[in-house]
Sequence to fold (394 residues):
Amino acid sequence: MLVHLDDLLKHAQANGYAVGGYDIVGLEFLEAIVVACERDAAPAILSLAESHFAHYDFDLLMPAVVEAARRASVPMAVHLDHGATAETVTRAIRLGCNAVMVDASHLPFADNARITREVAQLAHDCGVPVEGELGYVPGVEGEDAELHPGEVRMTEPEEAGRFAAETGVDCLAVSIGTVHGRMRGAPQLDFERLARIRDAAGVPLVIHGGTGLADEQYRALVAAGMTKLNYYTALADAAAGSIHARAAARPDAGYTALLAGVRAAIAGEVSRMNGLLGASGRAADARAACRPWREVVHAIAFNFDGTRDQDWQRDALARGVASLSAIPGVRAVEVGTAVWEGARYRHFWNIRFASPAVVKSYAAHPQHVDYADRVFRPAAADRLSTDYRIDQHD
Ligand code: 13P
Fold:
């Protein structure tokens, strides 16, 4: 079931557990994470990190991720991890992410706050909650932390309060000693700082760089106020370990034989983390507490007036598809023609919005206003237009 991330995080916060944000780099990861979470009855977040886009076709993978979240028996959100720009955030929402992160944490406070505020406004206009990051968590997911030796910049509690208030973020990633990627030894974590940030920020807190901590550190992070943990490198290492073991045992193994243990290896690691975060067994309660995510169809049945010829109509519709598709929160634009000659309306716009919030922001968007007022409405006075929320019947 695809649900609102803010409801999921509120439920976790109120009930003393954290939700795993698991990065996906292919179908094996997606299937393994969902299987593990269903087995554990654990809510979870399916994450796609912009830093991993070179490893897969984002446009092609996203429909599978959204479908997996929808049909899962446990509540899930689909999240853009480490989005770098407003363009990526808009693209991610178009493809079905119902939560996004904007990461400008490498910049000074004022620039980070400005960029995060702008992206948060854009995402909120689409009904989509936003994660920002304050403080700096160095390293790269899936690689040795030593290869990317940036300095950890710890989050200051007072700044966290200001950042949350100025930007309007719905959750905040903070730095208290973790690094992205594979580490040597367990890092020193400042739990007391995390608790002070929790009290100052007033929004759920996210820890990045989840791989490589001691079991008791995960539990202590939850106790000190972490509500979401991002976790990837350990999943990738479990997958790679399975492939290496099979290749060593059978050097002539074929492709499917090499991959045969990958899903079970990833699922095992996801289950271990769901247990440590206290997320296992929470799905039914979380599901009852979370609003299901609902998309909207903006439907317009219409006739062109008699003065527009076929070429003009074709050109006007093509321009509409191109222009309206680019508006933030629009997931798809289709235009169709009646199957029956005698239909009351000859043409039909089928425009899919990410959420009910888009009804308002789309109506006011300059690209929509321009197209509707200058091209479409003067040529199609005879029309019927309504917004429908898509219901779930399961
Ligand atoms: P690890 O790769 O260290 O688990 O971190 C994952 C992460 O923070 C993704 O945003």
Q: What stands out?
A: The mean pLDDT is 96.
